Amino acid sequence: MIRFGIWALVHGSRAALQDPDEPYDASWDRNKNLILEAERLGFDSTLIAQHTVNPHHAPQDQLEAWTAAAAVAALTTKIEIIAAIKPYLYHPVVLAKMALGIEHISHGRFAINLVNAWNRPELEKAGIGFPEHDARYEYGREWISVVEPLLRGESLTFEGERFDVQDYTLRPADPFRPRPLIYVGGESMPARQLVADKGDVWFINGQPLDDVRTLIADVSARARPPGTPPLRYGLSAFVIARETQAEAEAVLDHLFELAAKDAPIRAVQHANTDAASVMAQTMRKTPRVGSNGGTAAGLVGSYDQVAARIRAFHDAGIELFMLQFQPFEAEMRRFAAEIMPRVKAP
Questions:
Q1: For the chain, which residues make up each domain, given as ranges?
Q2: In the 8-state DSSP scheme, what is residue 338?
Q3: What's the whole-model pTM score?
Q4: Which of 147, 111, 122, 137 is nearest to 5 (CA)?
Q5: Contacts of 31 (CB under 8 A, 6+ apart)
Q6: What is the rounded CA–CA span in Å between residue 263 and residue 269?
Q7: Residues of 131-162 as b/e, b for ≥16 C-beta within 10 angstroms?
Q8: Rounded Cα gap, residues 158 and 150, in angstroms
Q9: HEC string of 150-185?
Q10: Which of 9, 112, 254, 315 is most deeply packed, by most CB within 10 A?
């Protein structure tokens, strides 16, 4: 089954911050209306990224992920709600309780996306500190080892290097399924092993089809805990679809021109990004617009071309496509009208 999701606009536009067709807006009202419309249009999921300050340009607004996720859960009826979480920001017991709360509000439509942080000043300026890359994954592994059994309603005693939890149980447990789903982001070797051991769905950043096949082959070959369902896969991608390939490429060129105006902002973001992050290294391989790989996935072209490329990614193992657009609302509607029927047709 192919599923389509949207990135919530928690820090505004995804491709260019100075677009006259999409004035900067990361407000709760815009995100609420965006997700409600996505649900009406037939999108299956939304991902709400977690940042305490805007990672692209700190003076600009940033929506808070977990309060927004709880509110969206109460307002929607069908769409899956995925909230990202950086383990250093929440004690695992507190986060597990919050996640179960949103699972109840949504009637079984909630998931967490475990990410291990890349924006250095976000943690450093708060006095939390920013350990080196592999140490952050070691922390995240121990953190999720506390969260996961608590989400299952198990009574947990855990003695680790960082957490000491004694005979802890969360009630009410999940009445809808064993626990909320766990998505994992990151493509480094520690990230790949973490998702094989602890995740339900692996989020891959947008990149060419052959690279995605290689990543899936690596992780699918890794052992899973006994009794664990097969790992599922999601892909981030920025979509530009038009009647013809030439029209789509003209839009891409226009977005590149707009994105060039953000060069000073992107330079600061680059300096703030952990150089050991595989995401950062991958993003520098291919010119693109959009975040988390953006147009590097190649979903730029005619309606038929984009639909065919989505099916090719699906044949490679991608189940969920987490999509970006600009201007977001208008292009999201275009995707629902033109691409969804083509992809889902027999």
A1: 3-344
A2: I
A3: 0.94
A4: 111
A5: 8, 9, 10, 48, 63, 68, 72
A6: 10
A7: eebeebbbbbbbbbbbbbbbbbbeebebeeee
A8: 11
A9: HHCCCCEEEECCCCEEEEECCCCCCCCCCCCEEEEE
A10: 112
- Asked whether the predicted pLDDT for residue 280 surpasses 60, the reply is no
Burial class of residue 346 (count of CB atoms within 10 Å of its CB; 0-12, 13-18, 19+): exposed
Centre a 10 Å sphere on the Cβ of residue 178 and count the other Cβ atoms it contains. Answer: 10
Written as six digits, the tokens of 112 are 């967490």
Residue 74: partners with Cβ closer than 8 Å, 6 or more residues away? 105, 106
Residue 38 token pair:
């996505």
**Rounded CA gap, 87 and 89, in Å?**
5
- Which residues, at least 6 apart from 268, have a Cβ–Cβ distance to it below 8 Å? 57
Specify the CATH class of 3-344 in words: alpha beta
User: At residue 324, does pLDDT exceed 90?
Assistant: yes
Q: Which residues share a beta bridge with 318?
A: 233
Residue of 115, 106, 104, 107 whose CA lies nearest to 170: 104
In angstroms, rounded to a whole number, what is the distance separating the alpha carbons of residues 303 and 286?
A: 23
DSSP codes joined into one string, 54-65: -SS-TTS----H
Query: Per residue in 88-101, pLDDT tens?
Result: 999 999 999 999 99
Computed over every residue of the chain, the mean pLDDT equals 94
CA separation for the pair 322, 339 (Å, rounded): 14
Q: Is 167 exposed, middle or buried (0-12, 13-18, 19+ CB in 10 A)?
A: exposed
Q: Are 180 and 103 in contact (CB under 8 A)?
A: yes
* Exposure on the CB side of residue 307, measured as CA atoms within 13 A: 19
β-bridge mates for residue 184, sequence order: 114, 202
Structure token pair of residue 204: 């891959």
Q: Name residues whose C-beta falls within 8 Å of residue 55's C-beta, 6 or more positions apart in sequence.
A: 11, 119, 122, 269, 272
Give the CA count within 13 Å in the CB-facing half-sphere of 36: 11
Local confidence band at 345 (pLDDT 50, 70, 90 cut-offs): confident
